[in-house]
Design a protein that fits this description.
Elements: H1 2-23, H2 53-76, H3 79-86, H4 93-114, H5 132-144, H6 151-174, E1 199-205, H7 214-225, E2 229-233, H8 235-242, H9 247-253, E3 258-261, H10 275-289, E4 295-299, H11 311-316, E5 320-321, E6 326-327, H12 337-351, E7 354-359, H13 364-376, E8 381-382, E9 394-397, E10 400-403
Parallel strand pairs: 1-2, 1-7, 1-8, 2-3, 3-4, 4-5, 6-7
Antiparallel strand pairs: 9-10
Helix pairs in contact: 2-4, 2-5, 2-6, 2-12, 4-6, 8-10, 12-13
The protein binds zinc ion.
Amino acid sequence: MENESSTLRRFCWLALAVSFLLLSPTPAVAGYAGPTVVAKANRHLWPDAIKTPAAFDKASRAALLVYILTLQDLQKASEADLRALMKVNRPNQASVDNWLRKEIESSFQRYRQASATCVANDWTCVESVAASETLLNQAQAWNRNIPHALSAWRNDFERFCRAYAAEQMRLAALLPGVSSEIARFNDQEWNGDDVADRQFFLTFDDGPSPVRGETDATLNMLDAKGKSAVFFLLGENLQNRLHRSDGSSLARLYQNQCVASHGWQHRSHAQWSQWQDSVKRTQSLLNSTLPKDSVLPLFRPPYGQRKADSGAFFQSQSLHVALWNLDSQDWNSRLNADEVVNRIIALMLIKRRGVVLFHDIHPKARAALPALFDVLGHAVDWGDCHQLPCSGGYRSGAAGVVKRDFNPCETAIP
Ligand SMILES: [Zn+2]
């Protein structure tokens, strides 16, 4: 009895400790604060191909209306329900509310952009899209009249939207203790929200792999498909690879692609006393190893974690923090390659633009991307990495604040 009781007590303490680590807004262990449930969608429930811009817009309109209605439901939910959904017991509620408000407003804007290709009698088009309030009322009416044949798609996509919003709200809830891709700290930081409509850029983190490993295979796949990407390299991995091959073979490996820094080690750069050294050392190795025109002045923090006041340091190094706005979760064992394809398509439909995060040290993206290119045909523009804008998309100019629509990676940062 005594032993059973002490075993039970130990178990309870262990359970308490584990739940503290999972729920604490400031985890004791620095690292990934990602989703506890990964959003999944089933693209096969959508009845039409999405290989053209018009077909993409149609699927995007339907997806955005479901997304907007889901976000609006979440806005009305109690704080207790949101806490349970986000799996955070002391959330930054103001940050969550702010994310919801902004996401609804930007989703309205994206729906308006998708409406440019509306034609008569298209069930995904609502009549008046100018005012957000009117659009919302129409979205509610639209929701009641979705064709019966589409109800399975609708239910599946609503589940996806709810789970995806929970992922994002969780990140918002953990601010400012845990930084991530959810928010930019200044206009020099960059996350992909500002690229052109229906334009997407590919990025791969955590490489390079050992010689003839996953990185090599990923690069071969991209070459075969005529696509480019930014590879955010870990300094330590690059140095290990240089021990086994020379700089010129690495330059050949990344030919036609872009490279940038992911720091020296895969550690939170918000909670590492050596973070500045990590950034400088990696940039120096990249610049001395790879051709100048392939090294972009970008730094992607592991887990998206960097200090809120790190802007001045990055500016002094002529570097921009480069985040992402479409997370493939390709590293996650809870998704297979086909589910990664499904998830990315769903995210592309609701975001309509941006930067997709993959990892070249895992095989899943290599399997998923050819299928993704095939499903989308010429519906979207896969951007050339050399045209990737470096900063948040705006800067002060002679005529006030101007949108950056050229490649500022080529120009000196003020
Ligand atoms: Zn990483």
